Amino acid sequence: MEHFNLPPSTTVNKSIPKNAFDYYTNWKQKKQFTDLVAKITWTNKLSTETINLPGNEVSEIQFITITLKTKTIIAPLLKIIDKAIPYHILFTIFFEDEYYHSAAQKHPNPLDNDNMVIDWVYASNWKPTSSQSISFTLKQSLDHIFFQICNQLAPKLIRNKTANFNQLLADVAMLDKLQREIAQLKNQIKTEIQFNKKVEMNIRLNQLLDNLNEFYSG
């Protein structure tokens, strides 16, 4: 399916060999690229040259599609590609008649220009290829375009509640930490046999659930 109605000036359509990332992989990861990935294609590039929009933290946005041999989430392999390519990327991963998107907020490593630092990864669930993709407008700046992309891939509880990357990153990190603490505490309560400790844990759990409700109502 055609996911994005991008201008012809952005078209690249170049195949990327799987061994292009060998420098960043160990033998197990090389095998995963071989066993899981059928094809990698660099489809489009958004930059000042291709759409005449400025960029500050985001100088280019690469669109990469990956066709899989088997249906699986390949987050570790996407991180390898993201670290290797010094530009922001929107991945579209296909398997038969399904797809999902992934994009990472990242920044250069001051000690290693060849290895980007991943701040956070945003990803959708698997969807039928007949379903609607994410959308964005080619206006304002490259930073704004990529923010639109990441915002739509963020958890529903915080989606469209902020207008900048810093706040979005802070919110997703806080939500993730909160959800992990709640899950961990629920498991501890199930196995705790001392009544007093169980009461204390339940009080803490209710506090965390109240904090979680703030995301729903905020």
Question: What is the compact description of this entry?
Answer:
The protein is an alpha+beta fold and 218 residues long. It contains 6 helices and 7 strands, in the order βαβαβαββββααα.
Overall description:
By secondary structure, this protein is α+β, with helices and mostly antiparallel strands. It has two domains: 8-153, no CATH class; 174-217. It contains six helices and seven strands; from the N terminus they run E-H-E-H-E-H-E-E-E-E-H-H-H. The chain has helices at residues 27-36, 48-51, 75-84, 142-153, 165-191, 195-217, and strands at residues 11-15, 37-47, 60-68, 88-95, 98-109, 112-123, 127-128. Strands 1, 2, 3, 4, 5, 6 and 7 form a seven-stranded mixed beta sheet that branches. A hairpin with a 2-residue loop joins strand 5 (98-109) and strand 6. The two termini are 36 Å apart. The model has no long low-confidence stretch (mean pLDDT 91).
